Structure formats: structure tokens, C-alpha cells
Amino acid sequence: MAIDSHMHINSIVSKNIEKEILDINNNSNLKNVINVSLNSETAKESIIISNTNAKFYSAVGIHPLYIENQSINDLYNIALNEKVVAIGEIGLDTTKDNIELQKKYLIEQISIANALNLPVIIHANNSNKLVIEIFERYIKPKEGCVFHCFQPDIDDLNYLIRNNYYISFAGRITYKNAKKSVEVAKSVPNDLFLVETDSPYISPEPVRNLVNQSSNIKYIIEKLALIKDMGYLEIEEITTENTKRLFKKIN
Questions:
Q1: What Cα–Cα distance (Å) separates residue 223 from each residue in 47, 74, 80, 244?
Q2: With contact defined as beta carbons under 8 Å apart, do 118 and 248 qualify?
Q3: pLDDT 10s digits, 209-248
Q4: Could you give the 3-state DSSP secondary structure of residue 123?
Q5: Over the stretch 87-130, which tens digit does the pLDDT of each residue have?
Q6: How far is residue 25's CA from residue 53's CA, in Å, rounded to a whole number?
Q7: Taking every pair of C-alpha atoms in the chain, what is the biggest distance, in angstroms?
Q8: Looking at the DSSP assignment, which residues form a beta bridge with residue 32?
Q9: Residue 17's Cα: distance from chain center in Å?
């Protein structure tokens, strides 16, 4: 069974969260999902969902695009919940001009992750090198990290590989113009990649015009199996084991 390593059920565009939870719980091809927060409010909502649904785990953090009016002070206590497996998503996003403030939030949240022995989920929008600079100059995630929806760059990939950091592939890998992502997929070691939907965003090619759902993880696995010349079940097994190795609290 597959693990969707990154989704946002609190952000489902249809707002029919109860139906999506039911669909995931009834999907025999999904072992687990990690519901990733964007701020303190969605973090608390995610924990409620995870505590009442066995397949669900939570990642809690403050996304770089949502740092306004957000306090990091409560994050440590929120992250103490048993079903919290990571701090995230956190990182840097160059579409906003408050990059110095984003760096401050990133450093402080990595510090919390390190104190709680949790990995981090990195959002890096046109900012792989800026995040890597934070790691090298200020603080590294001591329990590892994953660059979610990794934006393809072979030099950055080589840095992540050297440090045993993970990358995850989402719906974009299925797009016809994803040549650089395909190159990355061929280059990444089999023990360092995950799969995700980023639901409800980035729907894969066969359902590109629809709201994305965790059940669409199968399209990402199918594409990676084709790229790596491996079987579907082999990719599924590899990525499930990789996800459990990074997020150690997943049973």
C-alpha cells in the first residue's frame, strides 16, 4: 500500500472534508496520509483529524506564505501530539518580498524540530539554494528533511543526496513538459525519494482539471515506475519504506 507523504485535507477546495476522509479511510490502496498544515489553525485541525482517524498523521508548521500574524511560540506544544510526525511545511518562497522574515521563521522552526527529534518538510519555491544556505550557515535538520514537490536542479539534488535528505515527487512529474523532473527522477537514489499528491493542488495529468485527491497517488507511482523501469508495486514498496524511515513515528 502507498503512503501519500504530503497532502492538505483542511484545504480541500470542495470543502467536503468529511467525504474525503471517508474515501481515504475506505481506500485499500492507501496505507497512510500525512496531513500537512500551513499555520497554527490548520495544525490544530490536522491533529484533531489524525487523532480520530488511524490512517492520518500530521505535520505542523507555519508555511512561508502564511507567516503574517502567526506566532511560533505555540508550535512546540502543538507538535508534542503523538500523531505529529514532522514540522512542516516550512521554508522559503521568493514570490513574497519578506524573505528575511521567512528565514527567521525557518530557522526557529528547524530548531523546534531538532528539539523534538522530528524531521522537517521543506517548501522551497525558487529557493533551493537559499534553504541550503540556511542549512550550511545557521542550522541543519538533525532528523532529516524532505524537499516536497522538489523543483528540479541537479546541483541542488546532489547536495541533498550527499546529506541523505529526501525529495518527493508530486503531480508535475506526470506533465508532458516535466523533462527536468524526469532527469531528477532518474538520478535520485531509490532510498531517497517519496511520493505525494499535495492534494488538493497539482492534480496529475489524467485528472489535471479536477480537484486533486490522495487516491491520485497511483498516477505518480505509475509515472515513476515508467521512468525508473521498475514495477508499480516495487515503487510503492520503496516509497512506503522511505516514508517510514524519514517519519519514524508512522507505524
A1: 32, 40, 36, 22
A2: no
A3: 999 999 999 999 999 999 999 999 999 999 999 999 999 9
A4: strand
A5: 999 999 999 999 999 999 999 999 999 999 999 999 999 999 99
A6: 8
A7: 47
A8: 3
A9: 19
Burial of 4 (0-12, 13-18, 19+ CB in 10 A): buried
Counting every residue, how long is the chain?
251
Q: Per-residue b/e over 182-219, b at no fewer than 16 CB within 10 Å?
A: bebbeebeeebbbbbbbbbebbbeeeeeeebbbbbbbb
Provide the grid cell at 4.
Answer: 501519500
pLDDT, mean over the chain: 96
Question: Cα separation of 79 and 8, whole Å?
Answer: 17
3-state secondary structure of 2: strand
**Cα–Cα dist 131/184, whole Å:** 19
Count the neighbouring beta carbons within 10 Å of the beta carbon of residue 153.
Answer: 15
Q: How confident is the model at residue 16 (pLDDT cuts 50, 70, 90)?
A: confident
Written as one string, the DSSP assignment of 60-92 is E---GGG-TT--STTHHHHTTSTTEEEEEEEEE
Local confidence band at 11 (pLDDT 50, 70, 90 cut-offs): confident
Nearest alpha-carbon partner for 24 in 7, 11, 48, 41: 7
d(CA 35, CA 141): 20
Name the phi and psi angles at 16, rounded to 5: -90, 65
CATH architecture of the domain 2-246 equals Alpha-Beta Barrel (3.20)
Can you give the pLDDT at residue 251? 86
H helices present in the chain, as ranges: 17-25, 40-52, 75-78, 99-115, 128-137, 154-162, 179-187, 217-228, 232-246
